[in-house]
């Protein structure tokens, strides 16, 4: 008989500890944004590794909700997984979540994403990325966890022209509201870590791509347009570089970091002077492929994987965009003995294989 079918419905982990046997030895991980691209992949990996995953998501219609539901349909049959529809900005709902459940660790991946969308929908970013994040931190404050890992972004480097981007670089000149909210996350997380001794790690993701990805991302839009024989919009006339990071590398980094919460207030000498002077159990790392690719080169690789040429519509640089992203990952490698390394050709082929299968393309 399926274990999950006989477990009490009022317990998110399926049963009380004394009833669970081996399940009681599993760590309980809260993953926010679990129906999202990265959240889905992380939940799959944690379940595979034997953890219990409690996932929450508000199933925002920012992009195709059916894709989010399809991701959830892959997770929900698995023992050890529980899903709750919940918005981070729901203060009472978040408080109730932490009052009723105990989590060993939390990974916050829920956020309103996208640079251009923030130009027309600023309040969505404040509600989700700022108010929602504070609600989560309040939960971790009142129901202490062993580790809070949260998603930041390479966007925080903003107008910085020094490359590669290092965690010691200044990040006080964001060029989009999305970037400003992510920098705000880092500052507020540090405050809570300092005040309430919450072990916190922020990860600055660099252009994550791969199967089950986000339809609003350029590579996904390009694949859709090329497949349909439609032109693709290429900004700044293609003169941009992105540090594309394959999803499996991101997940490997998150899982390794999750198992290594900050233990002391003494940060490694490779961290910034600002962080060295901090007494908080707090770290920030870049997580990127540290090999930026020119946009036109990326398009050629995508064309080859799809077996079809793209029609380019070259356009000027859009507001809020940066010319280059390039991660220095020395601190990450030192901390977890790992750095993303999947070649772009391999990663794009894996995405195309999934894309053609998911959308039933010939």
In words, what does this structure look like?
The chain has 13 helices and 13 strands. It starts with 16 loop residues before the first helix and ends with a helix. Helices cover 40% and strands 15% of the residues. With 362 residues, it is of the alpha/beta class. Helix 2 packs parallel to helix 3 (65-75) and helix 2 packs across helix 9 (247-258).
Can you summarize this structure?
The protein is of the alpha/beta class. Helices cover 40% and strands 15% of the residues. It has helices at residues 17-20, 37-48, 65-75, 91-100, 117-120, 122-142, 177-196, 218-228, 247-258, 273-276, 295-306, 330-336, 344-358, and strands at residues 28-32, 52-57, 81-85, 105-108, 147-153, 200-205, 208-209, 232-235, 241-242, 245-246, 282-287, 293-294, 312-315.
Keywords:
single chain, alpha/beta, seven-stranded parallel β-sheet, 13 helices, 13 strands, disordered N terminus
How does the SSE layout of this entry go?
Elements (H helix, E strand, L loop, with lengths): L16 H4 L7 E5 L4 H12 L3 E6 L7 H11 L5 E5 L5 H10 L4 E4 L8 H4 L1 H21 L4 E7 L23 H20 L3 E6 L2 E2 L8 H11 L3 E4 L5 E2 L2 E2 H12 L14 H4 L5 E6 L5 E2 H12 L5 E4 L14 H7 L7 H15 L4
Parallel strand pairs: 1-2, 1-4, 2-3, 4-5, 5-6, 6-11, 7-10, 8-13
Antiparallel strand pairs: 9-12
Rounded to the nearest angstrom, the radius of gyration is: 20 Å
Helical content stands at 25-40%
Mean pLDDT value: 88
Backbone shape: globular
- SSE series: HEHEHEHEHHEHEEHEEEHHEEHEHH
Strand content: 15-25%
Number of E strands: 13
Query: What does the main sheet amount to?
Result: 7 strands, parallel
Number of helices: 13
How far apart lie the N and C ends?
Answer: 39 Å
**Can you tell me the residue ranges where pLDDT is under 50 for at least 5 consecutive residues?**
1-24, 266-270
Strand order of the largest sheet: 3-2-1-4-5-6-11
Structural class: alpha/beta
């Amino acid at each position: 008989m399926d274990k999950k079918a006989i477990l009490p419905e009022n317990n998110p982990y399926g049963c009380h500890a004394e009833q669970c046997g081996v399940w009681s030895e599993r760590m309980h991980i809260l993953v926010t944004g679990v129906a999202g691209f990265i959240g889905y992949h992380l939940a799959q990996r944690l379940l595979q590794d034997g953890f219990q995953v409690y996932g929450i998501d508000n199933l925002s219609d920012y992009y195709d909700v059916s894709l989010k539901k399809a991701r959830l349909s892959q997770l929900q049959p698995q023992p050890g997984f529980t899903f709750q529809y919940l918005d981070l900005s729901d203060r009472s709902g978040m408080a109730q979540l932490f009052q009723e459940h105990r989590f060993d660790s939390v990974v916050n991946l829920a956020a309103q994403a996208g640079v251009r969308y923030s130009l027309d929908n600023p309040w969505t970013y404040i509600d989700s990325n700022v108010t929602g994040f504070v609600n989560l931190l309040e939960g971790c404050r009142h129901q202490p966890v062993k580790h809070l890992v949260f998603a930041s972004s390479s966007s925080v480097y903003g107008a910085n022209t020094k490359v590669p981007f290092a965690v010691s670089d200044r990040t006080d000149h964001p060029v989009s509201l999305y970037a400003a909210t992510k920098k705000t996350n880092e500052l507020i997380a540090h405050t809570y870590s300092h005040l309430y001794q919450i072990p916190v790690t922020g990860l600055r993701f660099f252009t994550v791509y791969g199967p089950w990805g986000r339809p609003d991302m350029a590579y996904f839009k390009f694949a859709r347009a090329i497949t349909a024989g439609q032109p693709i919009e290429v900004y700044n006339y293609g003169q941009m570089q992105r540090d594309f990071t394959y999803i499996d590398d991101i997940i490997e980094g998150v899982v390794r970091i999750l198992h290594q919460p900050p233990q002391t207030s003494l940060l490694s000498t490779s961290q910034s002077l600002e962080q060295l002077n901090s007494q908080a159990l707090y770290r920030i790392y870049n997580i990127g492929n540290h090999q930026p690719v020119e946009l036109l080169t990326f398009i050629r690789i995508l064309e080859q994987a799809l077996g079809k040429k793209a029609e380019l519509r070259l356009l000027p640089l859009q507001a809020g965009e940066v010319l280059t992203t390039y991660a220095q990952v020395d601190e990450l490698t030192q901390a977890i003995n790992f750095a993303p390394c999947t070649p772009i050709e391999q990663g794009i082929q894996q995405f195309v294989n999934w894309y053609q299968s998911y959308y039933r393309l010939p």
